[in-house]
Specification:
Layout (H helix, E strand, L loop, with lengths): L8 H22 L6 H12 L17 H12 L9 H11 L3 H4 L7 E2 L4 E4 L13 E4 L4 H6 L13 H15 L8 H12 L4 H8 L4 H7 L5 H7 L5
């Protein structure tokens, strides 16, 4: 019997933050006489004991022939009648739009402007709240053709559960021997590809939805030495 994996310090840190938030609003919202101060005072000790820690910035991108391996795997998977999720198209749309998987599966036919090659993305994740944070993004590359190829089965273009997509993606990685690759890493891959193609950070931000360009630079873009070598810049 396999032992269950224990949550890491970064995960526990999130849990502690949630406990603190509940205690902070407990009196005003629930009428409970409580205080967040004990949690605040415990933070330094928890950090010193390494029981909690800040999450490390991810740098993983698609490497080598991983894109081709995954694409071929999804193509074979979709040949089975039991497969109802268009993994290939969702995989590619994630790489051409920089959207989170929850945003991809929330795209609606009503919000598509095919003549202008753009689409409205509703309730995008935002530090100040996602509700009502709608942004319109350009459909670059093959995005529009992928969308138009989908059957109109409901109001959503990709009417599937995002968790099912990520679970299927992880199963594919495991079978292919691809390690330490998460579905959300595709968002970084997509953003960095646009930078490498010559788009400015400001232009990429209109696609990713970032308001803070520093975050886009530090977290979602990772220019590799190999890319710079390909440009073969002559400094002489």
């Amino acid at each position: 019997m396999e032992s269950e994996s224990k949550p890491g310090p970064a995960t526990i840190s999130i849990d502690v933050s949630l406990i603190r938030k509940v205690l902070r609003v407990g009196k005003s919202l629930l009428g409970v006489n409580c205080s967040q101060q004990p949690v605040v005072e415990a933070y330094q000790a928890l950090y010193d004991l390494k029981l909690i820690a800040r999450s490390k910035a991810r740098k993983r991108r698609l490497e080598g022939n991983e894109y081709e391996l995954l694409l071929n795997f999804f193509e074979q998977k979709e040949k089975h009648r039991s497969t109802v999720i268009p993994y290939r198209d969702i995989f590619n749309i994630s790489l051409t739009t920089c959207l989170r998987i929850s945003e991809v599966t929330s795209l609606r036919w009503l919000d598509l402007n095919s003549s202008a090659s753009k689409i409205l993305v509703r309730d995008r994740k935002n530090p100040n709240g996602s509700e009502g944070n709608h942004t319109e993004i350009p459909l670059l590359g093959q995005s529009l053709s992928i969308i138009l190829a989908q059957p109109r089965q409901s109001e959503f273009i990709f009417p599937v559960n995002p968790r099912s997509v990520t679970a299927g993606f992880q199963r594919a990685c495991k079978k292919l021997g691809i390690t330490d690759l998460r579905y959300h890493d595709l968002r970084r891959e997509a953003a960095t590809r646009l930078i490498e193609l010559g788009y400015t950070v400001e232009e990429v931000a209109t696609v990713t939805g970032h308001k803070d360009l520093k975050i886009l630079w530090q977290v979602y873009t990772r220019i590799t030495p190999e890319h710079l070598l390909k440009k073969n810049i002559n400094f002489v």
